[in-house]
């Protein structure tokens, strides 16, 4: 098992179970070996048996909860893990329990419970990028975009190769910027998000990331930077109505009304299938025409 030879481990632990069918630890080791071998349904049966034989052992319940999450049964995983007393676990137990319980709690619409455990665990596991990502996800589910941004940003700082964390940090920064009450707060969130977005876009050169960088700079009111990133996004998908709309907004804010008008008209010519986008384009056109008359 320790060498990662799960197929052999399964065979040998099955022999132990056959010889000692009431030994909980044997069922537990067979279960986690089966899980390692990708046999999740069989792993669940073995781990459930281990819990039945020794319900007081938190390691068995945690392994069962983890495997239920892996199987997509978060409701049952939550029920199993909720019975475990997090504060009584040792360091390794807490490290195993926290991400599994958090996932189960979030996916069963209990982000507050996930946050309580994850906040406690991140104070101990201060270098665990995945834990901070889970914390950000929980805050996001709770609707707290500012705290979500802080957690996602920390996750990205701990693992700069974690593009999922980078993208989540930018999106939560944009959301926090929109909700911020003061101009300085708005600028801070958007600017921080834009810097992360630029790193991400430079690393991937993917359309969605180029667009995200432009959105962040647009929110930060740095229209030249925004336009530069939207230009790169347009080179990837010239028929994107959203890119054209953002370019129109940027050009309007830069006072380039003629170019802004052409961009909006081009977006309408391409065709906006979404009614809300058509409304935004016509509103922007009306604003441009008013400015040109002035």
Give the helices and strands as they follow along the chain.
HHHHHHHHHHHHHHHH
Distance between the termini: 76 Å
The secondary-structure class comes to mainly alpha
Which percent band covers the strand fraction? under 5%
* Mean pLDDT over the residues: 96
How many strands?
0
Number of helical segments?
16
For the CA atoms, what is the radius of gyration?
Answer: 25 Å
Can you summarize the main beta sheet?
none
Uncertain parts: none
What sort of overall outline do the alpha carbons produce when their principal axes are compared?
elongated
Helical content band: over 70%
Summary of the model, kept short:
It is built from 16 helices and no strands. It has helices at 6-19, 24-36, 40-53, 58-70, 74-82, 91-107, 111-122, 129-142, 145-158, 163-179, 183-204, 207-219, 223-236, 241-253, 257-270, 275-293.
Structural account:
The protein has 294 residues and is an all-alpha fold. Helix content is 79%, strand content 0%. It is built from 16 helices and no strands. It has helices at residues 6-19, 24-36, 40-53, 58-70, 74-82, 91-107, 111-122, 129-142, 145-158, 163-179, 183-204, 207-219, 223-236, 241-253, 257-270, 275-293. Helix 6 (91-107) packs parallel to helix 8 (129-142), helix 14 (241-253) runs antiparallel to helix 15 and helix 15 runs antiparallel to helix 16 (275-293). It is elongated and about 90 Å long. The mean pLDDT is 96.
